Prior knowledge:
42% of the residues lie in helices and 15% in strands. By secondary structure, the chain is α/β, with parallel strands linked by helices. It has a single domain, classed as 3-Layer(aba) Sandwich (Rossmann fold). A 7-stranded parallel sheet has the order 3-2-1-4-5-6-7, with helices on both faces. The chain is globular. It comes from Dyadobacter jejuensis. InterPro entries: KR_dom (IPR057326), NAD(P)-bd_dom_sf (IPR036291), Sc_DH/Rdtase_CS (IPR020904), SDR (IPR050259), SDR_fam (IPR002347). Residues 7-192 form the Ketoreductase domain. This is NADP-dependent 3-hydroxy acid dehydrogenase YdfG. Belongs to the short-chain dehydrogenases/reductases (SDR) family.
Amino acid sequence: MTESIVKVALVTGGSKGIGYGVAEALIKDGIKVAITSRSQSAADAAAAKLNTIKDGYALGIASDVRELSSQEQAVATVIGHFGRLDYLIANAGVGHFAPIQELTAQQWQETIDINLTGVFFSAKASLAALTETQGYFITISSLAGTNFFPSGTAYNASKFGVVGFSQAMMMDVRNAGIKVSTVMPGSVATEFNHHQPSDKDAWKIQPEDIGQIVSDLIKMPARTLPSKIEVRPTMPPK
């Protein structure tokens, strides 16, 4: 009897928020998951919690998406530990919101480096492995990737870039058997931008909801590709 292959995912920025919600959903689907954080202790703590769902299915890795070598090492660690890489969910992100008059050069650079260049580095680091497994590259963008707003110059620029990057990459790699999709959430109840989730966030999209969307994308027939998905809260406050 042939042993079934256990698929493997790498989720950047997976120690909390959307990334953790995605990792949790994938493990419940029987997929082994490596999560990254710039903090090894944060990655280990999240992985330990995830391993209570299925023991040995989660791995924490310290990695910085702003550095290509760091992403390459993360992918090598995943393959060394789990033996393969089938899915990469490029989720790591940061938000700096201020009018252009007040936005600093450092805030601009960090936003672009993490939110946009980090996605490019994640793609470059994983392409060979995803080509081998005919895998899936999923980016977590935002409705800010099509809807601009005051104080959003850095964030809008980064997320518009992620949407454009994802759609163009999809066309580059589809004939190699790699799928690419971007998920564009609206308000999500996470710690993003120093927010502390509370009962007041019940109207918002929850991290596990985005996890469900990623899970559903992976389960789509190979012939079908939902390349861009916009997600909104059903009943936002008036």
